[in-house]
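dumping this here before i forget
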Amino acid sequence: MSTSRRTVISAAAAAGLVAAALGPGAGAAHADGGGPGDPSPPRRKRFGELADGTEVDIWTLSAGGTRLKVLSYGGIVQSLEVPDRKGRYANISLGFGDLASYMAGSPFFGALIGRFGNRIADGAFTLDGQAYELPRNDNGHTLHGGDQGFDKRVWRVEPFTRGGASGLVLSRTSPDGEMGFPGTLQVRVEYTLGPDGEFRIDYEATTDRPTVVNLTNHTYFNLAGEGSGSVLDHTLELAASRFTPVGETLIPTGELAKVADTPFDFRRPKPLGLDIREAHGQIRYGRGYDHNLVFDKGITAEPEHVATVTEPVSGRVMRVATTEPGVQLYTGNFLDGTLTGTSGRIYRQSDGFCLETQHFPDSPNQPAFPTTVLRPGQTYRSTTVHSFAAE
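structure:
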């Protein structure tokens, strides 16, 4: 089903007005800003600093009944607040309350991922006959661009407001050879809260040498509220008839397998936990879901609806539209109780889920997969929109 670039969820804005009227008991999270239903200019505060003294800021956006907090470090979505069916707000994004925790060992909470989202086998690929070696930071493979990827860089941030929307432009220059990738990459990412509360991410990149690019965002969601426990009762529907099976170290085999009669069939809504304990080889490899599903729509010029997630108690619904051909479904399988989130509660396995819209993992080494090659004169573009409602 096609979804326009302005996917609307008017219920979120209406619920925001209810929360504002209820006061601190329901809307305390909005105490440092204006009414949650009203767009307001982005606001900046200091969040911390790196060891070299570089300042890290936290930006707050509010529009259409949604509130978003973003760090200049890693482009991290630190908090995302939306109302439930009773107008009560909660942060639905897992994360930390301080910079030190993000730097000490974050599992990519909320991060802007690059240069290449997901895994590249053996930390190596060949492009135009030239071999490239990358840092191996995941079982001998390269994960999410290496150990010093875009998630660990400080981004230049410029705020904007327009037409009832509030947003940020994040930009940086990734120099030739950064994490082993060829070409100087100019990257621009726009985070926008629209007038109906939708959270839109637009990615752009250009290069001066042939390279590979696959950008995404790694927000862990819990629609019941961050720190509230397992997401396995969330219902997921995905417009994906195939997935890319993996080997023991989670590298795709190259096959595009049918989801029919497997735990990966979300073509009809079902709870995330319904099949997660099946004795299926793919589930064992990932310790749950950590797999790329292939959208039936393919690559599209405009974002099209691909996923719906519903949390039954709060009534919160998140709908996802994207231009990308696939999504990495991850159920927080490696959260082990050692991390404490913004709520002061610890995160355990399956306390969050990710829907990382993307091209397929290991595409530089898989010629049958959609290409991730970017050449001089071309512009990489990708868009994903998250829309929220309460039912």
